Amino acid sequence: MPPPPPSPADQRTLPSRLQDYDRGYAAFDWAQARREVTDLGGGRLNIAYEALDRHLDGPGADRTAIRFLPRDGGDPLAITYRALNARANQFANLLAERGLQPGDRVYCLAHRIPDLYAAALGTLKHGCVFTPLFSAFGPEPIRSRVEIGEPAAVVTTARLYRRKMADWIAETPCLRHVLLIGDVDEAPEGTVDAARAMDALSAEYTTRPMDPEAMALLHFTSGTTGRPKGAVHAHEAVVLHRVTAEQALDLQPGDVYWSTADPGWVAGMSYGIIGPFAAGVTLVVDEAEFDAERWYRILDEQRVNVWYTAPTAIRMLMKCGPELPARYDLSALRFIASVGEPLNPEAVHWSRATLGLPFHDNWWQTETGGIMIANFRCLPIKPGSMGRPVPGIEAAVVRRDDAGGIERIDAADETGELALRKGWPAMFRGYLHEEARYRKAFSGDWYLTGDLVRRDVDGYYWFIGRGDDVIKTSGHLIGPFEVESALMEHPAVAEVGVIGVPDEVTGERIKAFVALKPGHAPDDELRRALMALARKRLGAAVAPREIAFADQLPRTRSGKIMRRLLRARELGLPEGDTSTLEGGDDRLRPCASPTAGGG
Ligand code: ATP
Ligand code: MG
């Protein structure tokens, strides 16, 4: 049975933009949001249908879906929704031709190239499960994730295949198909030049109607706190992706939107592919790695309206100083947002002064599938706060009791664990092969996030720290973020990671690792100045006892400071799983421009 014709994208009963937070929150209804997703028969749906097919019958069909900026500075390539849909259809046909069945897993190991987007959506069209991996992973992290998830196929490039997979692929018999995208001179033995094979296949494909609960995505967590977990997501996740793309990121049809998230990470999927296409925007895809000057040029030349990035990138931009952005016209920007780590208040002040508008922080996890807490356009920002819950999301601050239950903390400004009431569409449906661990993440109706927060009287949530990172000193519970943000106020400081070190007297004492901006010397005078600043801002009990200077802090590939690694190194303990640690072979270039004062 052919699916019904696409419903016009503008036939909406829910407003796509949140005008009044309290009213929008009170009126929100998941059932209504679900009804706005195209019913492909008997309540079935497909993420890819929402991202692509749905646009084909309306004015969105010939809109640019992807504006691809080649690494080497060559001419941008524009791909319309119609063309991207056709290419995704060819990929779906390739999977069908090779005998892949719905439910089979397809891994993807590639940097941002146009066929990655067609492969992701073509995989979903065919009912297969898509799993992105960081292209910067070494052979071992790739292999171990293949062993956990047992994909039937992997989509990658010839270069990545030769460097990272060829040596061990014979030992993973589950992986039957290696599909190469990008330039392929000669496909190595046992691989398929997928780009060429797709060219020869039909551009027609009937997107498969899927059960809303059918597994669509498998995402590995960032591994910040330990071994990465494989979070399972269902097709109905698209309901949240679309609503939050519109309400939390302010995406409107026709907007030019740039997400800098790596496609190997959940953010690169939820808000680098699904959410934006479901919202009908033009997605800017930059093939290159971070480079401050290039980034400002992209914001200017591409007339970017909405920009979604991460604190680690923002800190690198801040490190390069205000002269660089002053040379570019950033007037097309309407909304800028950040995710992945706490956003220091300093970054909000800086962006207001330097870019002309403030970063809106938002909070979510691989497990939540999409944005849960956000600073909305219609609400005043409190710098340092993650904002308020997304409409449809009930959040609470809780304390775990000894019997495995939880107690809600309703009073304002009390620290506790952030909990979310079960039942939103993008909630993870399991950790692959780790049923007990999954069950442990819930208490009754609540999902326990593992992050400590407080909620203020106005209902804004403030991040304190990950449960594992919180420091207990002299009877106080101290979140590293608070201490880090105070030190970030010093003009010489580029980045800070704070940990607790065991101490006989206080339980733990606070130690800060500080990376400096270019042109600042790590000397005792600066150390004393930083101590004084911390004491003034935080009080003597909370100020760090020790400050060490570091060239760089260890981070995950998704840009998160790995405090557990700082702690392990400090205490001479085993480093644990470091598969997601950012390596030395793909060093980012913070300030390419010599006039920007660094390099
Ligand atoms: P793992 O679970 O493997 O240790 P991870 O938690 O870093 O890794 P992700 O799911 O990528 O993996 O990251 C989610 C976490 O990132 C959140 O639980 C939170 O600790 C942190 N985070 C994300 N956004 C924010 C934010 N806006 N403010 C503070 N912390 C954030
Ligand atoms: Mg986590």
From TrEMBL:
SUPFAM superfamilies reported in the protein's UniProt record: Acetyl-CoA synthetase-like (SSF56801)
Documented EC number(s): 6.2.1.1
Gene Ontology MF: a single term: acetate-CoA ligase activity
Enzymatic class: ligase
InterPro entries named among the record's database cross-references: AMP-bd_C, AMP-bd_C_sf, AMP-binding_CS, AMP-dep_synth/lig_dom, ANL_N_sf
Domain AMP-dependent synthetase/ligase: 60-432
Key words, A-Z: Acetylation, ATP-binding, Ligase, Nucleotide-binding
Region called Disordered, residue ranges: 574-599
GO biological process: acetyl-CoA biosynthetic process
Pfam families xrefs: AMP-binding, AMP-binding_C
Lineage: superkingdom: Bacteria
Residue ranges of every copy of the AMP-binding enzyme C-terminal domain listed in the record: 482-560
Gene3D superfamilies on file: 3.30.300.30, N-terminal domain of ligase-like
PANTHER family: ACETYL-COENZYME A SYNTHETASE (PTHR24095), ACETYL-COENZYME A SYNTHETASE 1 (PTHR24095:SF14)
Protein name: acetate--CoA ligase
Species in which this protein is naturally found: Alkalispirillum mobile
